[in-house]
Specification:
alpha/beta, VC0802-like, 16 strands, 39% helix, binds aspartic acid, binds magnesium ion
């Protein structure tokens, strides 16, 4: 049986119309047998707000009301909806009960149960929308098969068991009906509900596609695939029909707001092709991410990552003496800082800090303690308001003329740092934040729009 798994994100299942549109996409291809859904747009955020302890009762009730309104706007559109209404009512009651319990005492396991209810509501409603269109469809509780460890809030999937349970409990049912299951959630060995971390539905879908040895995984979202750059920066940005996993991973690393390739790793290691498209405009097509692609181009995309910090370390100790870099990196590691780009000279090392990969993601990474420790063996200079622009492609390090082409158009700009050569997939430059948009537009014109 050729099997396609289709995952729909929160905006794709935001309301009845959105769900109905997605159902049409699924029903147009009889190979699509398993549907994985996120919670309807906004619901997980509301549940996160409800999970706080010590919420004033009026606020708690207001949040409950908002969640119920989103669910009921869908229930009310369904024909013969008594059974579905009853199922949704019992989940809403559970939300009420669990959120009351959490008011008194924070509890990670209970919080995960609360967060899981958004996806559980969505799967019941989405299955009913399929039935309203005449399909044979049912909701399937993914917790029967998506086994994780007990790290509530960011549980680790247990690949072997997920495969075993999916083959035994999920696959047989797919022969006779469409199953709609939940992304984002799982269960540990004791049957406690867990979650995979915010945005975890793509990961769930990839894990299930892997476990079922699916032929393809479709990720339906609100953008029509991956573009050569952010269309807001370059209006002539083009959608990319096909891209390799490695290139997509580079783009995500360098800031492209695409599906994070780490989340589809399970599908890719099983060589399952992944499609990304817009459920609001499925006719526009989308992007296929494949293990290998035909004729990969030298230039694939230009990515931009803002908000970069450059640290310059200077020490005469470095002169002809081993160990300085080792010491520096050991210090950074102790402070849980992940380094991005590096360039060195005889007595200087410059590096940019990776906010996403570092532990204190989103916050300022440079603590007083770190700066003090570094100052003991070198002079530290820090520069902010920088942006990283990456030209992504193939065989960049082994194709003559690339640097000349890139730098010839950057003549008016001040390039603060360059990194090229470690990966054949990128050439990175660091520029001042204020020039970043211009640099991206200029590069896109030169590399992708030139006749
Ligand atoms: N509903 C969850 C979230 O908003 C998971 C997901 O949508 O991927 O984080
Ligand atoms: Mg989401």
């Amino acid at each position: 049986m050729s099997l396609i798994v289709a995952k729909f994100g929160g905006t794709s299942v935001a309301d009845y119309e959105a769900m109905a549109r997605c159902a049409d996409i699924v029903l147009a291809n009889p190979s699509t047998r398993l549907v994985v859904t996120s919670a309807s747009s906004g619901v997980t955020n509301l549940l996160v707000a409800l999970a706080q302890t010590g919420l004033p009762e009026s606020q708690r009730l207001a949040l409950l009301k908002q969640i119920a309104a989103i669910q009921y706007a869908i229930v009310d559109r369904l024909p013969h909806n008594d059974e579905v209404a009853a199922a949704i009512d019992s989940l809403l009651t559970r939300i009420d009960v669990v959120s009351q319990q959490l008011q008194h005492e924070a509890d990670k396991a209970l919080t995960d149960e609360l967060l899981s209810l958004g996806e559980r509501c969505a799967s019941i409603l989405f299955a009913a929308v399929f039935r309203a269109k005449g399909a044979v469809a049912e909701a399937f509780d993914v917790r029967q098969v998506l086994r994780t460890d007990s790290h509530f809030g960011k549980a680790e999937p247990q690949i072997g068991q997920i495969r075993e349970f999916s083959q035994k409990l999920l696959l047989p049912g797919l022969a006779s009906r469409l199953l709609v299951t939940q992304g984002f959630i799982g269960a540990d060995a004791d049957g406690h509900t867990t979650t995979l971390g915010r945005g975890g539905s793509d990961y769930s879908a990839a894990l299930l596609a892997e476990a079922l040895e699916a032929e393809a995984l479709q990720i339906w979202t609100d953008v029509a695939g991956i573009y050569t750059t952010d269309p807001r920066l370059a209006p002539n940005a083009r959608p990319i029909a096909e891209i390799s996993f490695n290139e997509a991973a580079e783009m995500a690393t360098f800031g492209a707001k695409i599906l994070h390739p780490a989340t589809i790793l399970p599908a890719v290691r099983q060589q399952i092709q992944v499609f990304v498209g817009s459920s609001k405009a499925s006719e526009k097509g989308g992007t296929w991410i494949r293990h290998q692609v035909n004729n990969p181009p030298v230039y694939r995309a230009v990515a931009l990552r803002r908000d970069q910090t450059l640290m310059n370390l200077h020490s005469l100790q470095m002169l002809h003496s081993p160990g300085f870099l080792a010491e520096t990196f050991a210090t950074l590691a102790r402070h849980k800082i992940s380094v991005d780009l590096i360039t060195t000279s005889e007595v200087n090392v410059a590096l940019t800090l990776d906010k996403t990969g570092s532990q204190s993601s989103g916050q300022c990474l440079l603590t007083e303690a770190l700066l003090q420790e570094l100052s003991q063996h070198c002079r530290v200079r820090v520069e902010d308001n920088l942006a990283l622009v990456a030209v992504i492609g193939n065989q960049i390090a082994s194709t003559p003329g690339i640097c000349q082409r890139v730098f010839s158009v950057l003549a008016p700009h001040n390039v603060r740092l360059i990194c090229q050569g470690a990966s054949s997939h990128n050439l990175c430059i660091l520029v001042h934040e204020a020039e970043a948009a211009d640099v991206v537009a200029t590069l896109h014109r030169a590399l992708f729009e030139a006749p």
